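In response to a reviewer's request, we include the raw inputs and outputs for one of the modeled complexes. The two entities were modeled together in a single run.
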Amino acid sequence: MKTPDVKKEKDEKKYGRRDIIKLAGLGAVAVTAAAITEKVFAEEPEASPTRWAMVIDLRKCYGCHSCSAACKSGNNVQIGNFRSWVVQVEKGQYPLAERDFLPRLCNQCENPACVRVCPTTATYKRPDGIVEIDKSICIGCRYCVNACPFGMRSFGWRRGYDKGKEDYPARRYGVADKCDFCFHRLENGMVPSCVNTCPAKARIIGNIKDKNSEVYKLIDENPTQRLLPDLGTDPHVYYIGLDWDTAEKAIEVGTRQTPTEI
Amino acid sequence: MAVPNNNDKLVKDVVRVLTVTGPRYYAAVAVLAAIAFFGLIVWINQVMKGLDVTGMSNSVAWGVYITNFVFFIGISLAGTLISAVLHITHAEWRRPITRAAEAVTVFALIFAMISILVDIGHPERFLNLFLFGPAGSPMIWDIFIVTMYLISSAFYLYLSMIPDLAIMRDVFPAKSWRGILYKILALGWEDTAEQKRKYKKAVSIIVVLIMPVAIMVHTVTAFIFGVTIRPGWHSTILGPYFVVTALFSGLAVISVALAVLRKVFKLENYLKPAHFSNLGKLLAIMSALWLYFTFAEFLTSAFAGHLDEMYVITSKLYGDFAIPFWGMIFCVAASFVVLIIKKINPIARTVIAAVFITIAVWLERFLIIVPALTQPLSEGHKGGIYHVSFSEIFITTALLAGFILCYFIFVKLFPVISILELREAREAVPTAMEKIKSYLHDEE
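The model returned the following structure tokens for the whole complex.
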């Protein structure tokens, strides 16, 4: 085999192999630069007039777990997983014993740690503040499950349990799952299942940007607390009357449903 | 089989490794293939039934599979160290082991990718990583850099092999399958001066470019964990720590691989005790460095005593993970002790230490990933329990078997000892002498 005569080839063709490679390289650089410029100078999406937030008035909650049940059946959550649940924390000795209830759900953070890490953009924040999962894109790497400091995310571990029906979501295998404020209900003018079912009316949902909303007024008029505010994720679930010890313990016990003593 | 028409002893030996295959080799390949096949069945079972068959839960959402991923990524560093760093520093002893080391890199990266496929819920959607991947996700950084590293190290492995493949092409008859294979792969290499010049230039460029990529691979893999706010993961030292551990485990795996090659293919003439002695020295340095990093990591978090961090640390020191933790410390300490005993012969010394180190590093990866997930800032659901399931054990074993199997097949297809490098080694002797003389002091 002979090495081809490079010089001769160059004379014959207008562009040599090297020129083509160089051109291709330049082209690649140009395309990347264009893509980056487009991203950097892209116009900010118009701010939505809505920012959903929830207030949970713990003075009213008496721990009936209706929200857990309504959420689980309404969203067809997989066996073993929860999107919302109630933690029970027991404190003190008889006769001064008390039991605190703390309903948990996704905080729909303003700076969600889970969205930052998602490698496929399956998890994203909607303009109205709800953090949603596109289950047709999610590859199930569970990075978000590990990254959420509140432990609100679960994963579809089991396969082949339920196919779902019309207007009733299937239990999706192999993807991340979490509370999404029942946005399918919100969009149709209904409140989320847990709010709908709460017999004590302890859960209130609303648009925090609207100064006439109940949520805004409650936060305005009452001292409110949030879980792990120091992590900088800016949670949008506000509690009224949350005890510090209870909050600490609640994070620790996760989805355990049985009462925990401090 | 083809009779090589070349009287060079080196070429003869390389051809012997390629063509002379004993029954024990076939037995080993059969066993490895059986294990790998069984692992494939277990994986299919896992895909059918869901990841529920693993011991993972919503709290401990990453387990042995991610440990395997990080472990395989780790051992990929050594090939680059041997072939690039030692190349640039003109460490002459590297010459016979470059090919074997570079192959470890490529296969380790392939199996790291497979480990990810095994772990994710929807392996069929892995292309989404490339289709939708946002630039902000640390996992995308990792996928990007690992892909780049795989391509560049596979390219380097191939590039460095072209002259050898040309020799093999000339040795085997043109009509045999080997002759055809090597003819295609040798890309018309004729050993001309022009080709040699271009080849030298290409190699010297790629060995420089591959080094930052290698360092980045390990750092970015560490960042996957380091950038989260999870106690035990959220640590600034994690990036450099991973680089050190990667070197450590990579050198260990290469030592074992070389010892096996030496024994099985009777390469005593090429892989001499001096090589193992040098690898042993590097291992001893790395184990000291590793202990230093581990100490620095533990002391700073434990002394500050943040409660969340303390949960992780105490669970390792005397909690649920005490056995793997102290097992790991024992393995590293034992390897260090074995390495500094001069009485044992260097080959046995290095191989024993390397086996200890390989176990220790796997445990270390496990201890970085799992204990942090069982702790309170996270869910703590199920009280942070993680039991490794049978599926995970089988698939891990199968991945290891597959890795060794690929290596065994590679050895039979391509020259595992670089003929070109060894020929250059002879030529390099006067140059090396000149070099030593150039920095000697003048004696008047």
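As requested, we also summarize the result in words. Chain B is about 75% helix and 0% strand. Residues 378-383 of chain B have pLDDT under 50 and may be disordered.
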